[in-house]
Design a protein that fits this description.
222 residues, Jelly Rolls, three-stranded antiparallel sheet
């Protein structure tokens, strides 16, 4: 199957998943649904914000709507990027649409010092390339603080694989050098702060990575 066909299949699965999530939560937001015109105007204002201004980048107008192929967000800096992100469907700043769909190009492995989790439940659909996903082995009495000490599983992920994770699912990706991986990444509502699981416990991402570049080595678990 060609890359184009894989992309079409991945996008189709992603759109179907988004539709199901919306239908499952629509009854909880009836009042907001009645205010769609006003919410759309509010979303438009948010989506035109500066892509490098604070943490509101995920709500901005996607570059593809600006007729630009440049990524909407780059982690790791321009000289040695870790991940490039394009907003296919950005998350909007209101509860009726708390989900987003991103196209990821992963260029290098995650920091090997600790596994990390995420602020939202998420789904990865691999489109091109493969990686190894490192996850802790969950025993009968497993608790998150055991993550750094637990035995690890090394799971191969290949094109066409669909990986569903909770926000608390700690993991690390291993990328073969010089072989970037493309994936469709779907996220749900932001429900928690995220970070890394060290032997001393949970470390917020701001305290782990470099202060000026979240894709670079910082203090880590020290």
């Amino acid at each position: 199957m060609s890359v184009e066909h894989l992309a079409q299949v991945g996008l189709g699965i992603g759109l179907f998943t988004l539709l199901m999530l919306v239908l499952m939560t629509a009854h909880e937001h009836i009042e907001e649904m009645r205010q769609l015109p006003a919410l759309a105007r509010e979303a438009w204002v948010w989506m035109q914000r500066d892509p490098w201004n604070g943490e509101n980048t995920e709500h901005r107008l996607p570059n593809w709507l600006r007729l630009s192929l440049y990524p909407d967000f780059v982690i790791g800096g321009p000289k040695r990027p870790y991940l490039k992100r394009w907003y296919v469907l950005p998350r909007l700043p209101w509860k009726a649409w708390p989900i987003g769909m991103y196209l990821h190009q992963i260029l290098r492995s995650d920091d090997e010092r600790a596994l990390h989790d995420h602020p939202w439940p998420n789904i990865s659909i691999l489109l091109r390339g493969s990686y190894i996903e490192v996850v802790p082995v969950h025993t009968a009495h497993f608790e998150p603080w055991m993550t750094a000490y637990a035995e690890k599983r090394y799971l191969p992920r290949n094109p066409g694989d669909v990986v569903v994770r909770r926000s608390t699912s700690a993991h690390r990706l291993i990328i073969q050098h010089g072989h970037p991986v493309w994936s469709l990444f779907i996220v749900g509502p932001r429900i928690r702060q995220w970070g890394f699981w060290c032997k001393k416990g949970f470390v917020h991402w701001r305290d782990f990575v470099a202060a000026t570049d979240r894709g670079s080595v910082g203090r880590g678990c020290d």
